[in-house]
Design goal:
This protein is an alpha/beta fold. It is built from 6 helices and 5 strands, in the order βαβαβαβαβαα. α3 runs parallel beside α4.
């Protein structure tokens, strides 16, 4: 019997409704779910204006195969996506996770998810959806490099409080 598997889909927008990128991430997660048959699919992302969280909007789009679908509605950063989904996976005995993200986001997502998940024994891989990079997305990712160490420390501190 294989170790339990989860797909994790971090949000990708700061608007009150999900972006076209988020829609593509859900579609990619559906394709992966057909092939991998995950036990769990987790959508993570907040709403900066207090409306329906991005994670919930992504879950509502799901047309993939039967799996437990979870929503983590509070994460505002990639570090928080990783830290706030980790307990959900650990509670369910998940040992393998595939993170579904945009191509440019894959490097930063990898930096956070690997450090947090693998420290807790969850084998972590990544699947980039087919999304054309934009100059704005590249600028965002480059700018985010300057805060990633601080965000990782904050995520680790958040997880330590849960223990």
């Amino acid at each position: 019997m294989e170790a339990p598997l989860a797909l994790v889909v971090p949000g990708h927008s700061r608007r009150h409704r999900i972006s076209a990128t988020c829609r593509r991430l859900v579609t990619e997660a559906e394709r992966l779910a057909e092939a991998l048959e995950p036990d769990l699919v987790v959508f993570t992302g907040w709403s900066p204006v207090g409306g329906v969280p991005e994670a919930e909007q992504m879950r509502r789009l799901w047309r993939g195969p039967e799996a437990e679908l979870l929503v983590e509605p509070t994460a505002a950063t990639t570090a928080q996506n990783a830290a706030r989904t980790l307990p959900l996976l650990l509670e369910r005995g998940v040992e393998r996770a595939v993170i579904v993200c945009a191509p440019l986001h894959r490097y930063r997502a990898g930096w956070f998810f690997r450090r947090l998940y693998e420290a807790h024994g969850i084998e972590t891989t990544f699947r980039a959806a087919r999304i054309a990079p934009t100059p704005l997305a590249l600028a965002w990712e480059l700018g985010a490099l300057s805060v990633r160490s601080r965000q990782l420390r904050a995520a680790r501190a958040e997880l330590a409080k849960r223990r």
